[in-house]
């Protein structure tokens, strides 16, 4: 177990995953490669940003984004509504996945069967290159420590980095990795610092797509998550496969062990 941030500069965080990309839709590992949002991803950001702006109305807010364009595009939909500029911090970029970046699940399974077996079993992936999960957690934690003293910070990041950051803030060690389901595209988690610890108040919350019922604000359990395309339909989810449970499913989203 770790202790997270002892005295954070911000007592409330919204950890917001970027909207969908074409690679998300086709199940391709992105890592630190830089595809843009697709049309649906831009629509997700456009319908989510006003909801978040209303949620944060009257608060002093910082919007801090990964330097990858899919995150910056998402952040750019929200910041003008709050009257702030987007701050860019490369420490919020996605988990580097080495030789897997740009490949689909099937391509990884064919070219790197032993690595794929490790990933499917929830073990650290040997020989892939890229970053270790602990390093991702620590660099994203450093981004939190560097935040300005505002009421709320919105961190616009990626599925894998979001997962590692939430884990380290909550003091979860490697044995507890993947306790929480991965964020869908344009979904967010909310954490508050109370007394001496961070608490996860909401997880994997989204704004419903057209014609869909709202996702409950207390949707903490992975089984209650909506689809990764933000429309409330898990069967239509097409996130990248980079974040997996012990047996990763097609719905699981960016970056893994």
In short:
With about 260 residues, the protein is an alpha/beta fold. About 30% of the residues lie in helices and about 15% in strands. The chain has one domain: Phosphoglycerate mutase-like (Rossmann fold, 3-Layer(aba) Sandwich), CATH 3.40.50.
Tell me what the structure shows.
With 257 residues, the protein is of the alpha/beta class. The protein has a single domain, classed as Phosphoglycerate mutase-like (Rossmann fold, 3-Layer(aba) Sandwich), CATH 3.40.50. It is built from 7 helices and 6 strands, in the order E-H-H-E-H-E-H-H-H-E-H-E-E. It has a 6-stranded mixed sheet, sandwiched between helices. Helix 2 packs parallel to helix 3, helix 4 packs across helix 5 and helix 6 crosses helix 7. It is globular and about 50 Å long.
Q: What fold name goes in the CATH topology slot? A: Rossmann fold
The strand order across the widest sheet is 3-2-4-1-5-6
CATH homologous superfamily caption: Phosphoglycerate mutase-like
Q: In angstroms, what separates the terminal alpha carbons?
A: 17 Å
**Do you know the CATH architecture?**
3-Layer(aba) Sandwich
Low-confidence segments, given as residue ranges, are: 214-242, 244-257
Helical content class: 25-40%
How large, in whole angstroms, is the Cα Rg?
17 Å
Largest sheet: 6 strands, mixed
Any idea of the CATH class? Alpha Beta
State which percent range the strand residues make up: 5-15%
Strand tally is 6
* Mean pLDDT, all residues: 84
What's the number of helices?
7
Number of domains: 1
Shape: globular
The class by helix and strand makeup works out as alpha/beta
Order of helices and strands: EHHEHEHHHEHEE
């Amino acid at each position: 177990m770790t202790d997270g941030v002892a005295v954070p500069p911000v007592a409330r965080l919204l950890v917001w995953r970027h909207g969908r990309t074409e690679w998300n839709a086709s199940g391709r590992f992105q890592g630190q490669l830089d595809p843009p949002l697709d049309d649906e991803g831009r629509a997700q950001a456009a319908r989510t940003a006003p909801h978040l702006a209303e949620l944060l109305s009257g608060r002093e807010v910082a919007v801090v984004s990964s330097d990858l364009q899919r995150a910056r595009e998402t952040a750019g939909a929200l910041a003008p509504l709050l009257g702030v500029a987007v701050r860019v911090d490369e420490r919020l970029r996605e988990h580097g996945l080495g030789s897997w970046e740009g490949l689909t699940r099937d391509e990884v399974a064919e070219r790197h069967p032993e690595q794929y077996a490790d990933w499917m079993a929830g073990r650290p992936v040997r020989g892939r290159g890229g970053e270790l999960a602990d390093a991702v957690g620590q660099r994203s934690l450093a981004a939190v420590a560097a935040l300005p003293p505002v009421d709320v910070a919105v961190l616009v990041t990626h599925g894998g980095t979001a997962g590692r950051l939430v884990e380290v803030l909550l003091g979860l060690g490697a044995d507890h990795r993947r306790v929480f389901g991965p964020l869908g595209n344009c979904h967010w988690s909310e954490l508050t610092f109370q007394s001496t610890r961070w608490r996860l108040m909401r997880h994997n919350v989204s704004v419903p797509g057209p014609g869909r019922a709202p996702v409950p604000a207390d949707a903490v359990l992975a089984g209650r998550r909506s689809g990764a395309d933000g429309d409330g339909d898990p069967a239509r989810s097409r996130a990248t496969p980079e974040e997996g449970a012990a047996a990763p499913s097609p719905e699981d989203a960016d970056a893994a062990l």
